[in-house]
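To close the section, here is one more complete example, presented without commentary so you can practise reading it yourself. The ligand is flavin-adenine dinucleotide.
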Amino acid sequence: VSQTIGVIGAGVIGVACARALQRAGRDVVLFDPLPPGSCCSAGNAGHIALDHIRPLARPDILAAVPRMLASRTAPLIVRWRGLPALTPWLTRFALAAHPRQVGIATAALSALLGTALADWQNELELSGLSSLLRQQGGLNVVETRQGLAALRREANVLDAQAVPYWDLSPSQVVERLPGLSVSSQGGRLFPQSAHVVDPLQVVASLAKRFVADGGTLIPAPVTDFEQQDTRITGVNTPNATYPVSAIVLASGVATAGLARRLRFHLPLTAERGYHVMIPSGSIGVEMPVTFNERGFVVTPMAKGIRLAGTVELGAGQRHPDWSRADIFAAHVRALFGKSVNVLSRWHGDRPTLPDYLPAIGHAPGLTNVLVAAGHQHLGLTLAAVTARIVASLAAGRAVDIDLRPLSPARFHRR
Ligand SMILES: Cc1cc2nc3c(=O)[nH]c(=O)nc-3n(C[C@H](O)[C@H](O)[C@H](O)COP(=O)(O)OP(=O)(O)OC[C@H]3O[C@@H](n4cnc5c(N)ncnc54)[C@H](O)[C@@H]3O)c2cc1C
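Output:
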C-alpha cells in the first residue's frame, strides 16, 4: 500500500503544504502542469497582512454592492456578463455578511493570523530563504472623512482581537510617506505586518528546496482519481496513475472542479485582481502601504515597486480588463504628483469562497482527502499556517485552532 501523499497544485498553498508534509517525514508528490507559483501566487502584493482579521463578507461591503454594479473604476466591481453565474455565490455572500456570521469569521481569521508570521519565519528559516521576508510593518492611509470614520470603527474589532497598531496623524503619515502630495486624514500603522520581496521567488525557491530534499514534482494536471469506498487510492494524470495514501487539494480556483469530481460542493469564485510594476525609487515606500478608499497596495519589492489590488467579480475565464490595472498608475499620479513608468502588468484570480474564509480540513464523505483552498486575499499570508495545520491533520494530530468555521464540508448538502 502506498504511503505517498499527493498534493495537487503548486501555488503558494500547495508548495507550503508539500514542504510541511515533507518535514513531517512523509513521501510527497506535488502535481502541477505549470511551473510552481505561476497562477495567483505569482503576482500578489507580497503583504503578510496580519491586520486583515475581518472577512470581506460583511454588512458595509454588502451595502456598497449596488454602487459597485454601476461603476467601472470602484475598487470592487462586478462584470455584468458574469452576473448570472455569480448569483448563487452572491446570495451566499449576502448571508455570510450577517453580523453573527461576521463575528465567527473574524474569530476564525484572527486565530489563523495569530501565528501566520511565526509559521512563515519558521518555514523560510528552515528553507534558508529568510532574506525574502522583510519585517517593516504595514501602513493604511485614509483620504476622506468617511474613510477615517471607518478606520475608527475598525479599531474596536482590532482591540477585541488584540491586534497591535498605532494611529497616525496626517503629518505622521507624511513622515512615513515623503512625497505624498495629497492631504490625508491620517493612517494606521501595523508594526507586526511584513512583506516578501518577490512572491514568485518565494514559491519557486520553496519548490526547489522540496525537490532538493527528495520530493517529487510531476509537471502534469490531475484529471481524475481512483477511489475505493471512501478512500482515494490513486491520482490520474493524462499519462499515468500515481498510487497515494492521501491527497491534499490545493489547486486554487480549480479546486472547485476537483471537488465536483469527488462529489462535494466548494463554491469558489475567481476574484480577479491586477498589479503593475514601476521602477524602484519612483516613490518613497518602505513597507506595504494600503490606500483604503482607492483599494490598492503599494509594496517595495526586489525588482521594483508593485501596485496591486482591486476586485473584479464575474471575470473568471474572461479577458483581462487592463483599464483596471491602469488605474493604479493614475492613483500614484494623483497621490504623489508625478507620472510613473509602468514596467509590466499582471492579472490573477484569487480563489474565494462566499464567506471569505478558506477551506482547511477533511473533505466531506472521504477519509483521506484534505482541502487547503479558498484563501482569497490572504493566500500568501496564511500559506505557512495552513501548511502546519494540514501536516497535523495528515498525521492524525489535534490542531490548536478551531477548524469548524473552516470546514470544507460547510457548503455541502447531502
Ligand atoms: C492582485 C492580488 C493581490 C494580492 N495580494 C496579496 C497579499 O498581499 N497578501 C496575501 O496574503 N495574499 C494576496 N493575494 C492573494 C493570494 O495571491 C492568493 O490567495 C494565493 O495566491 C492563492 O494561492 P493558491 O496556492 O491557493 O492558488 P494559485 O496560486 O492559483 O495556485 C493553484 C495552482 O494549482 C494548479 N492547478 C490547478 N488545477 C490543477 C490540477 N488539476 N492539477 C494540478 N495542478 C492544478 C495551478 O496550475 C496553480 O499553479 C493577492 C491576490 C491578487 C490577485
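Once you have examined the C-alpha cells, check your reading against these statements. The first strand starts at residue 4 and ends at 8. The chain is about 35% helix and 25% strand.
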